TrEMBL record:
Entry GO CC: plasma membrane
Subcellular location: Cell membrane
Family: Belongs to the ABC-4 integral membrane protein family.
Official protein name in the record: ABC transporter permease
Regions that span the bilayer: 92-112, 142-163, 183-206
Length: 224
């Protein structure tokens, strides 16, 4: 399979050999010929020999050789001219902004939660708890909160998947790719989402807890 466009899945690349130009009532402005090279062929050497030996023989009558370009460059030019590149940039920017909002929201929530329990941390320290033990306890609590929230939201997510028709296998894509397998796709995306949320929660918990655990118990219990 060959990836024709950056926004498309890989598909079969058909190279058709024509002995002559098809007979039409109109003449195309341009004819494109595709060459597929073997893996052990040096592309730079091929281009140099092609321009030196083949190009002079292609200028016949009203037909002339314009340029020799790589398929990747032609694909990139098409993507820029058709707006595919700008669309993908916009989607990536919106996804990054949404992820940043989730990161700031979760980090802020867990940060405030840890700072609000500074007295509890001071009390635990005065009773002999170590900094590592306090950090592990708060990280475990953060893991439990994220896990419970994720498990509770799974039924609603599954219902949304079936209601939107996402669970129905598509006939357009290649079923060999996991993106076109609804159950595998849902499992992988859900797992990645859980891992991202868990990492954000642990980061938002570790920093304030580590800072609060370094404070002396008397100072932490001052307002108690």
């Amino acid at each position: 399979d060959y990836k024709h466009r950056i926004n498309e899945q890989p598909g079969n690349l058909l190279i058709q050999v024509n002995g002559k130009i098809p007979n039409h009532n109109w003449i195309q402005r341009m004819y494109m010929v595709t060459f597929r090279l073997k893996q052990n062929v040096d592309v730079a050497v091929f281009e140099k020999r092609f321009k030196a030996e083949v190009v002079p023989q292609l200028n016949v009558g009203n037909f002339y050789f314009t340029k020799l370009g790589r398929f990747a460059d032609i694909r990139r030019q098409y993507e820029n001219e058709s707006g595919v590149t700008n669309t993908l940039r916009l989607q990536y920017s919106l996804a990054g902004f949404a992820l940043l909002c989730v990161f700031l929201g979760m980090v802020g929530t867990f940060w405030i939660r840890c700072n609000a329990r500074r007295q509890d941390i001071g009390l635990m320290r005065s009773m002999g708890a170590t900094r590592k033990g306090i950090c592990n306890q708060f990280l475990t609590e953060a893991w439990l909160l994220v896990t419970v929230a994720f498990v509770v939201s799974l039924p609603l997510t599954i219902h949304r998947v079936y209601a939107s028709g996402f669970a129905n296998p598509t006939m357009d894509g290649n079923p060999d790719y996991w993106q076109n397998q609804p159950y595998t796709h849902f499992f992988i995306v859900s797992l990645l989402t859980y891992v991202v949320l868990l990492i954000i929660a642990l980061l938002g918990t570790y920093a304030p807890v580590t800072r609060a655990a370094k404070i002396l118990p008397a100072e932490a219990l001052r307002d108690e």
